[in-house]
Structure prediction request, 1468 residues.
Amino acid sequence: MENIWIKIGYALLTIFIVLNYGLLLQGLFRKIGARVGRRHGIRIWQPWVDIIKNYTFRSRIYHGVMYYLGPVFRLTGGIGLLLFLPVIYGSEMFSNFSFTGDLMLVLYFQFFGVLGMALGAGESGHPYSAIGVSRGLSQVTAFELPLTLGVLAIGLQYHTLNINEIVAAQQGSILNWTFFTNPFAAAAMLLSFLGAMGRSPFDVVLAPQEIPIGPPTEFNSSLLGVLQLNRAIFPVAKLILFMNLLFGGATNWGELIIKTFFIYFWSVFVGIAFPRFRVDQSVRWFLSIPLILGVIAIILIKF
Amino acid sequence: MVTPVYLVVSLLGIAFALGILGKPLRKVAGVITLATMAFASYISVSWFMGLWFGEQSAAMVFTAGFRPPFSINLLMGFEEAFFLSLVNLAGLFGTLFLYRTLMKSGVNAFVILLILIMGLNVIIMTRDLFNLFVFMEISSIATAGIIILNPHQKTISAGFKYMLATGIVAGILLLGIIFFYHFTGTLNLDDTIRVNIEAWKGITVALFFILIAVIVELKPFPANGWGLDVYESVPGGIGMLISTASASAMLYVVYKLLPIAPPVFFQILTTIGIGTFFFSNLLALKQTHPNRLLGYSSVGQIGLITGVIGLSHFLGNQFGLIAASLLISHYLAKAGLFWISGILNKTHIREWSVIRQNRLLLFLFSLFVFLLLGFPPFPAFYGKWELIMQLAGSGQFFWLGAILVASLLEGVYLFRWLGYAMKLEAPAGEPLRVGWNQYIPLGIFGLATFVTGYYATHLSSYGSLINLIPLAFALGFFLIDFLPVYIKNTLAIAGMGFYFYYLYPDLNGFDMVFSAIFLVGGILTLLAGYAYKGKRIGFYPTALMMFAGLIGLVEAKTTLEFFFAWEVMTAGSYFLIIRGKKSMEHALSYMLFSLGGAYLILAGFSLASIGQSTIVLDILATAPLYAPLIFILLAIGFMTKTASIGLHIWLPGAHAEAETDVSPMVSSILLKAGVFGLIILIIRMGEQHLGSLSILYILSWIGAITAVLGNLMAAFQEDAKRLLAYSSIGVLGYILFGLALFSHLGWLAAIAIAVTHFLFKALLFLAIGGVVWRLKTKEMYRMGGLITRMPFTFISVLIGIIVLAGIPPLSGFAGKWIFTNAVIEKEWFFQGALISFAGIIAFLYCFRLIHTIFLGQLKDEHRKVNEAPFWILAPQYIILIIVMVFSVLPNSLLHPIGEMLKPYFPDGALTWQGQYATSIFGYWNGTWVMYVVVAIFLLVFLWLWFMNRKAYRVKQFNIVFAAERPFRPETTHFAYNFFAPYKKAIGFLAEPGVTRFWGHVSEGSHAIAELIRRIYSGNGQVYLFQIMAFIVVVYLISFGGF
Amino acid sequence: MHWFSLEYIAMNLGFLLILIGLWGIITRKNILRIIISFSLFDTGTHIVIVAIGYIRNRTAPILDTLALQKDTASKIVDPLPQALVLTAIVIGLGVTALLLVYAMKLFETKKTLDIHRFNDLKW
Prediction:
């Protein structure tokens, strides 16, 4: 049981690294986005400043117990997702708590935070929060279907749902990556990934550019701070997941940072290039091209 | 033993005496008549008993001192005694029922009644053809005389049509008889039986005339308009005599003539009989007049028995039991129903809701309906069972199908009627008055249903296997229904607890799991019953009947026991469901799907029993013929209960409109009966193929589509209980899919989900039921913000939806994890992906459920709402504890189920090391997941709490709202049509296409019925033409070489 | 059997009456005519019965002469149909009487004897 304390230490270290990396990515990509739009953009350390600012507000209000717990659920979901993943391939310690469950646990645990947060937002009584949740859940269901097909294709391809084994099977050469060995599944999953990241064209949930809408509408001060922590950790956890599934994982932090950067860049690239979908449009879209790609992946792998 | 000639002597003598001494005896005529009929009944019943117990042998009475053929002889055999008892008892109680009416009509009324009964007695006993003719005429004249007692224009015209029809028929009979005499030289049946009939040329025509005349007297379709008109126009008490006494006697005539009938006659009887059964029930769909409806039903039932007589060659030594039980059921039920109709005296079945003024009458009404439809424990149940078994055994599939379809049609109108009586607004009018002379016959016939049912159980070949104790326990609650709820509830819980304790040592495997769901689950949901005040009349007998049926399924070793339990469960649950305020249509559609399903199951069992020497359930495994067909029949039958897509339309209404504690019973417990049936089926029959296509593969698609559509429809509901009901459809889709996987993991998932579904659906239905209890509305958008008013209920719902959604760390995730492993193992990816898609759609309605009710804006009218009653919360928290144990220690649930499955599926089991489970593909440690999640949660919470310690709580409307204060909660609570964009995108999938399909089926059959019944134009001449055309057509078809 | 023999004619006549009666019952509108047609039908059957019992060159089964009392069976026609026909006539009478009663009652209710006016009960 001494082992467990070391594990906890490494887990905290992982969280710390990922948090800062996540905040850096946030700042970086806001900057890139602004420059593409020919604006000057924020300072790159602005995300750190925002968090500190939120924790130091003097007026702090809350709407009820569930409202208070919403951000807790959200951040628990983000951190849990990270800790259930093997972050660095081959490192027992940076595999954190991935021994407790396989790919399915990770996929389903994503929703722990989402739903908890949705409940918290619901108690605020703000209609925009509820509208955001309605939109978000609608999109989630839609991109889950191609994602599931992709995951099943990978499960069949490697005959395992153990993420470590999936990563292990991709070692040796770039051409061993699932991205190349199972291109249709990868394509379906990467399109679903766009939905999971919630950037344009699938950002109607939060609609960040105009009126404040979406689940966080009513959150303020420390509560918003907790949400911002999650906003740094959760996307990186998802990036690590996709990196592990499609791009051969990472054997050290440097590799991890390079690979996840480019995966993130994919969603940013699409987001900057394409305008926003309405919810019904995005639902239909996910159920068209990505779904067909997923079906092709299954057919190819099965026959 | 009194010699049977006294039957004739006493009835005729008293009739003459009353006729002659009419006036002076006016006051006592009724009593004398009753005494005479009682005497006649005594004679016939004592003969019947004597012959049954073998103390007596059949007796022949010779009149006029000569031996036949020079005189008329009467036979008193076993069958005769049976039919005489029926006729005389009907006469006795029928007269008693009509006593007051008849007293007003005067002495002659009694005379005519006596003559009628006397005529029927002789018809049954006589062995002389001409004598038969004479007494048939006497009876029909007497009947016409009774009809005219009621001086109403409609009655008179009906009587006139009746007279004309029977007159023509008698003429034809007479012609037949005289030619018969011409060819054989005798009129005596016993004589002619000895003569080799085939040797006589031309005798076929004579025989045809005799037989067809007798058949027309039975009112076969379509030559029966005259009979139906009579049924409609006469008062119930007289309709009863025609339907029971006259019809029984005429049936016996058909039976009696069988020995002289040529072989082709049997086919004619079958075709006419079952055709009549089918068409009468079809046409009755459009009927609204109670007496005419009963008339259709009578004609139909008699048709069925006629058909059974025609099929007697195929029924072997079961023929007697089948015919007698069907006849007794018809006899008791029709008598009772006609009597009730006589008491109520209404002209539209919708007006029968006045029956609710008198609970005893309502009870009897339902009793007779269930008796008529062959529900257990009544005699027709065994009759129908044996009939179907024997028909399947002798390959008569066409008739088997026709009988089942027609029975279903019968169920449609009878249950619709029963529903009207139980649920419609009662029309204003005078209060019901029921005389003692009306109670006595009704009561005796009501009791007789149980007595005959008991005897039928013992007479049927396997009936003695059936365990009647749970059912008797349930029915016993009818006797103590006057006690307050808490006593009955305690008794019920104690009884079920004791039964579980009693069964426990013998339980293992699937039986253990399902009896736990049925009995322990039943006790949990019954706990909520303490929240009710008063007596809750009718709840406990029917609820316990359902549980008796459910546990009977588990205990069943034979197909008969299984079917018995299935029907008991259906009957009980029907009454539970119809208790809901707006449940009339839903209970009807539930019942019809259940009936249809039950008949498919019956057909499946009957096919499985072909060529096998026993009826244990294992014959499914060894069925030599039609195995795929058997599988399909049974699977569809069970899927009506699991509400798979296409057969699901009954469920949402039935579950949503039910009472607070009934919803969890029917949703979380009753649905598992279908699952249990499927398990029994698949475990025994394994994988069946249609050509090269595996049926299980088809089932897997049905399951997957059910899951997606069920969940999708749930997401679009505004009504909270309806939402949960649709969600049940979805979850049952997962279970069906899991069973179809037919692998260790698939079944592990299916059974684990079955158990968790029981837990979370009971939890959610109780919780939502508690909310509805307080708020008096089920519309979610009318609620909102209730978390502060009902925090305990909120916690229940929260845990319930997390389990439902399958989100780790709670136990619902186990199902998802195992499913994915099973899907990859089986390589059914597309169905698997749909199942997983359905799981995500579940998030939509889960969130909606908790958000629109408990979060958002509290409405002004709910500011003072209280927490749900203690007794509704209590079972929820017991369930919560179980859920948490299963979540923290997943192997406490999954490991035993896995062990239980190993004998059937040795490969692919999970490997357990403590709580660490490994499958072929992956691994999962539920306890550690829980530890990690709780630890992170606590850390984050403490961090936030520390940072946010000075936060204060704001009031409801204090939100960022464009610097405005929201207008009112109703406009601020985002709830109605919550997933509008989603509906826009893929809402077309949730269109009620299936409902529309069944609507068309229903409308179509009603339209056909409406079209066909136009043949009964009401014109006496048309009726006569129909009779003649009928005779000609039957002749041409049977003898003309068509 | 001979073309113009008595029993043959009687038999044919009987059946003819039966058919006429049935035709009348089905086509006539007036209830009284229907009842008369019924009587025709009934009478037809009676004649058929008698015709069947008739045996050529034999006498009625009334044993009033001494000659008949010896070797009776070969001298008389079949007595049974004759006995039956008596019963049948009586019954026919009863039925007809009751039909007439009905006709009277029907007339009382609607002041008409047109059978098409009594179609209230149907379907």
